[in-house]
TrEMBL record:
InterPro entries: LipidA_mod_glycosyltrf_83, RgtA/B/C-like. This is Glycosyltransferase RgtA/B/C/D-like domain-containing protein. One of its GO terms (biological process) is lipopolysaccharide biosynthetic process. Residues 73-217 form the Glycosyltransferase RgtA/B/C/D-like domain.
Length: 544
């Protein structure tokens, strides 16, 4: 017993790190196999990757961004393809991959915080990352941006090491990891000017050599090359879309009624306070978009919606403002030994927030995923500076405050929130549709959602199981596909709707005629098989 006590005393940081990792595993993997969150983005990505694996329809485009007609490179798809293949196309495997990367970020941020600031900064950074509710929510399920904090963190580390040691290997590794980040979310593209600056800095100041500099360009080109190939094949479609989007005068600059300074200040405050002191709650307690108005966050308990496709909101606590004030204070009046990491971190944050707020389109708080590691690292520095005090009382107060912060976040975790639908329901509906879909004719699928917060009605979640495990491929989910379908399956999750009188776009575009069959599952999900108005099969109509 004494030996164990002595070991824990000598290795208290590693012991705490292990505890944080175990907590993170529980928070991220609880109920993960039920596939509780499988909405449009997740099912679309899984379907595209399934078609790459089984149908050999290789893709040059990655996920579509929130910017209309613009796409990311496809390396996220290339990453999850072997994972989906190894799991025999079970989409839960992609959730597990995302959760694993989320857990892996904890030892990574522990190591990096200790490296740039010294021990025990890593304990405070890793502990916060393990339990911060927004981070937990986003890193426990599949979504292309959700692994971005890990890869952008590693990118930052190699940038730091390059500026510290001026070695080519760190320079190239930074560009390599950043190149991969470009496939995860368009927020990462905001940092391109900073990498251009780093490249010219290396050219003029460090004189790394032409091969190294060309190598960095080559690495970035490799990660965006699928888009160039697509452009050549399709008459520069993406370039035309970008030109329309950015130069039509409505998407650049802060939103009407919000000046840039206010928007910047609001975002900066929210970025720190939500990650450090956010209290997560179920339901949209605020507008879905993040407006950037100070009045939207400076009301006690007024939340900010943070996840675009799931009804979660977060309100920060006032003590989060105090922690932010201390971080800013110690950043300004810092020991000289922290100068390099602090300069790099604050450039990362200020540039990222400022340029993000120049976007005038719909903006959601999770767009800041590419910045999340920076406030967490600065929180670690604050913890280290206070912990380094020689006064036992101050160390005791800090330890108690940090423990209370961990407990606060664990108290308000949402991992035990139940959803009414799981993977078995998706499989059951998919099987019914596959068994009753026409062998030769065309069909499509639409959904009448039970959840009011779900905006997608094109049933991509159900069509994944219909196509993958039932072997029946519906037409795609664009308006013309519904117009061209001969049969429409309507999945009524409420079990109480009249699909023929529904105003849902997908059903209206199909032009429904009559219900020709219907089935009900154990969860009272009703599946209707509907013919077109101009093509009603005789003697095969259910009398309503």
């Amino acid at each position: 017993m004494n030996r164990i006590k002595k070991f824990l005393t000598r290795n208290w940081e590693l012991s705490l790190l292990l505890v944080f990792i175990l907590i993170a595993v529980v928070l991220r993997f609880t109920n993960i196999t039920s596939l509780n969150f499988f909405t449009f983005d997740q099912s679309r990505d899984a379907l595209f990757v399934k078609r790459m694996i089984i149908d050999h329809q290789w893709r040059l485009l990655g996920t579509q961004t929130s910017l209309p007609g613009m796409y990311l490179p496809p390396f996220y798809y290339y990453t999850i393809a072997p994972i989906l293949w190894l799991s025999k196309l079970n989409p839960v495997s992609i959730d597990i991959y995302s959760a694993f990367i989320g857990v892996l970020t904890i030892p990574a941020i522990y190591f990096i915080a200790n490296k740039i600031f010294g021990r025990p900064a890593g304990i405070f950074s890793s502990g916060l990352f393990a339990v911060s509710p927004l981070i937990v929510e986003l890193t426990r399920r599949a979504w292309n941006p959700n692994t971005l904090p890990f890869f952008i963190l590693i990118t930052f580390y190699f940038i730091y090491m390059y500026f510290k040691e001026k070695k080519l290997k760190y320079f190239l590794l930074a560009f390599g990891f950043y190149g991969y980040c470009l496939s995860l979310h368009f927020g990462a593209w905001i940092l391109i000017p900073l990498f251009i600056f780093i490249w010219f800095f290396a050219l003029i100041k460090d004189k790394l050599g032409i091969l190294g500099l060309l190598g960095a360009i080559g690495i970035l080109f490799f990660f965006v090359s699928p888009l160039f190939i697509f452009e050549i094949r399709h008459n520069f479609f993406l370039t035309q879309q970008a030109k329309i989007f950015f130069f039509d005068g409505s998407h650049l600059g802060p939103k009407t009624g919000v000046n840039l300074l206010e928007s910047f200040s609001t975002s900066l405050i929210a970025l720190f306070t939500i990650l450090i002191s956010g209290k997560i709650m179920v339901g949209y307690g605020a507008p879905l978009e993040f407006t950037g108005r100070l009045s939207d966050i400076f009301y006690l308990n007024k939340p900010i919606s943070v996840v675009a496709q799931k009804p979660f909101s977060i309100s920060f606590q006032w003590w989060g403002l105090g922690i932010l004030a201390l971080i800013i204070f110690f950043s300004l009046f810092k020991p000289n030994k922290y100068k390099l990491p602090l300069v790099l971190l604050w450039i990362w944050i200020i540039w990222g927030v400022l340029i993000s707020r120049m976007y005038g389109g719909s903006f959601f708080f999770f767009y800041y995923l590419f910045l999340f590691p920076a406030p967490i690292l600065l929180f670690g520095l604050l913890g280290k500076i206070v912990f380094d005090s020689k006064k036992i009382l101050i160390k005791t107060i800090l330890s108690l405050a940090f423990a209370l912060l961990i407990i606060f976040h664990l108290k308000y975790t949402t991992i035990h929130e139940k959803t009414w639908r799981d993977i078995n329901d998706l499989k059951e509906v998919g099987k019914i549709i596959a068994l009753n879909a026409p062998e030769n004719g065309t069909f499509n699928i639409a959904t009448i959602q039970k959840d009011a917060d779900r905006w997608d009605r094109n049933a991509v979640d159900y069509r994944y199981f219909t196509e993958t495990f039932g072997g029946k491929r519906a037409l795609d989910w664009y308006p013309q596909d519904y117009q061209n379908a001969e049969i429409l399956f309507v999945v009524d999750e409420s079990g109480q709707s009249d699909p023929l009188s529904s105003k849902i776009m997908e059903i209206s575009d199909f032009n429904p005629g009559q219900i020709i069959d219907q089935w009900t599952t154990g969860k009272n999900i009703v599946i209707y098989k509907i013919s077109k108005k101009e093509d009603i099969p005789k003697n095969d109509i259910i009398n309503q």
